[in-house]
Design goal:
Blueprint: E1 5-13, E2 16-21, E3 24-30, H1 32-41, E4 47-51, H2 54-57, H3 63-72, E5 77-80, H4 86-94, E6 99-102, H5 104-108, H6 111-120, E7 125-134, E8 137-142, E9 147-152, H7 153-163, E10 167-172, H8 184-193, E11 198-201, H9 207-216, E12 222-225, H10 227-230, H11 236-245
């Protein structure tokens, strides 16, 4: 049985890890290099590094810090933020990323997904979608949740997978940072629409939320969270121990 992945997310702004609520109210947390090292040594299955203002500020992703993070960890690293061209893919992969996450750049140029998948392989291309309910419909937002594209999120994700995206990250703006649980209806709609791995992001407030996620939607491949890990509210070894007790398969290399 395929194990469920637990993935901490480093939202990086001006070289520091930050966290907000509903994509707003950003506050400082820690050094990305120190946090990455901690997670790599304490049971994380993968790590996500997002330069959260690169697209909005119209600049390229910070590569110096990314290189330091990549050198520090021994788990797969997914990197996103300001990815608009194949050259951006090449740059972050050469910095040590294993997978590249596209969001706003793919909305502006959908051909990017196809071109990147063809050059680097589907497994390298992660489509990250920031989704919010608008009049009862799931809409895709860009530039860190600032702009409503008006696009139907499920149709956009299906198009991305058809173009070659090998993995989907579903970022629920409605539940981001609220800590009241993952957005199960949104995740169910995505899982029903595609057959590639789906990562749930936004809303985790405690261990029970991960148990509920994987028991309710066993087709979800991974749970991603930030603040509950960053502030020590939940440790990954403790989380995995409870998941295992509930019959949810997880990777445990050693007893912590």
């Amino acid at each position: 049985m395929i194990t469920k992945r637990i993935i901490p997310c480093l939202d990086v702004k001006d070289g520091r890890v930050v966290k907000g609520v509903n994509f707003k109210g950003i506050s400082d947390v820690s050094s990305p290099v120190e946090l990455a090292d901690y997670y790599s040594k304490n049971g994380a299955d993968e790590l996500v590094f997002y330069d959260i203002t690169a697209s909005f500020e119209g600049r390229k992703l910070f590569t110096d810090i990314l290189k330091e993070v990549a050198k520090t960890i021994f788990i797969p690293l997914t990197v996103g933020g300001g990815i608009n061209t194949l050259a951006d893919f090449d740059r972050v992969l050469k910095c040590g990323a294993d997978k590249v996450s596209v969001n706003s750049g793919a909305i502006k140029n959908p051909q990017l997904i196809y071109d990147a998948a063809k050059k680097y392989g589907d497994q390298c291309v992660v489509l990250s979608a920031d989704i919010k309910r608008v009049n009862g419909a799931f809409h895709v937002f860009l530039n860190g949740g600032r702009i409503d594209t008006g696009m139907d999120a499920i149709e956009w994700i299906k198009k991305g997978v058809d173009s070659g995206a090998g993995e989907i990250v579903v970022n629920s703006i409605d539940t981001d940072g609220v800590k009241k649980g993952f957005d199960l209806p949104m995740l169910r709609a995505v899982c029903d629409a595609v057959s590639v791995p789906v990562i749930a992001s936004g809303g985790a407030g405690g261990i029970d939320d991960f148990v509920t996620l994987f028991q309710t939607l066993p087709q979800v491949d991974a749970g991603l969270a930030a603040s509950i890990f960053h502030f020590g509210e939940v440790t990954i070894p403790a989380l995995k121990a409870v998941l295992k007790q509930n019959g949810i398969p997880v990777r445990i290399e050693r007893e912590f």
